[in-house]
Write a structure and sequence with these properties.
Blueprint (H helix, E strand, L loop, with lengths): L1 E4 L5 H10 L7 E8 L9 E8 L3 H16 L2 E9 L1 E4 L3 E9 L2 H18 L2 E7 L4 E3 L4 H12 L1
Parallel strand pairs: 1-4
Antiparallel strand pairs: 2-6, 3-5, 3-7, 4-6, 7-8
Helix pairs in contact: 2-3, 3-4
Length: about 150
């Protein structure tokens, strides 16, 4: 299940919901939470402004979750990604994977996070404390890491 929303999320509730989807089968549940941070330490971040392409964004993330299920023996996935104006230290993204064995959950969760950063149609602008707004560019290292999964 994928949700793109402005509201904050409760990671513990999301974990419990995912765990309860497969009673007696879940042997591992791995979760990841991403936060707003300073992108340029010499220029403190006030906020991150995230925009997305509604509908297309959710479909792309769903496709990533489906690909993860096809590649690894996992039970379920859950992704929540926030949009709008998020201030430093706020939660941005939640990704969780449940499986019978931990190794499958680790691989699938890492794949979803890596691919989400490069394939989901999000646009980010960093608002600095001095008032400047800067578009956040995709890092070449993120694209390279995602490409490695294609060869795996």
């Amino acid at each position: 299940m994928v949700t793109v929303q402005e509201a904050d999320f409760n990671a513990q509730e999301l974990i419990q919901q995912l765990y309860k989807q497969h009673p007696g089968q879940t042997g591992a549940l791995l979760s990841f939470i991403g936060y707003v941070r300073d992108y340029q330490p010499e220029h403190p971040t006030e906020a991150l402004i995230l925009e997305h392409y509604p509908g297309m964004c959710e479909r792309e993330i769903e496709a990533l979750c489906t690909q993860a299920k096809e590649r690894w023996d996992i039970l379920a996935t859950r992704v929540v990604h926030r949009v709008g104006t998020l201030h430093r230290d706020e939660q941005i993204v939640f990704v969780a994977v449940s499986s019978i064995h931990r190794g499958e959950a680790f691989k699938a969760c890492e794949y979803i996070i890596d691919a989400l950063k490069t394939r989901a149609p999000f646009w980010k602008r960093e608002q600095l404390q001095d008032g400047q707004k800067i578009w956040v560019q995709q890092h070449e290292s993120d694209a390279q890491k995602t490409a490695l999964w294609d060869n795996d």
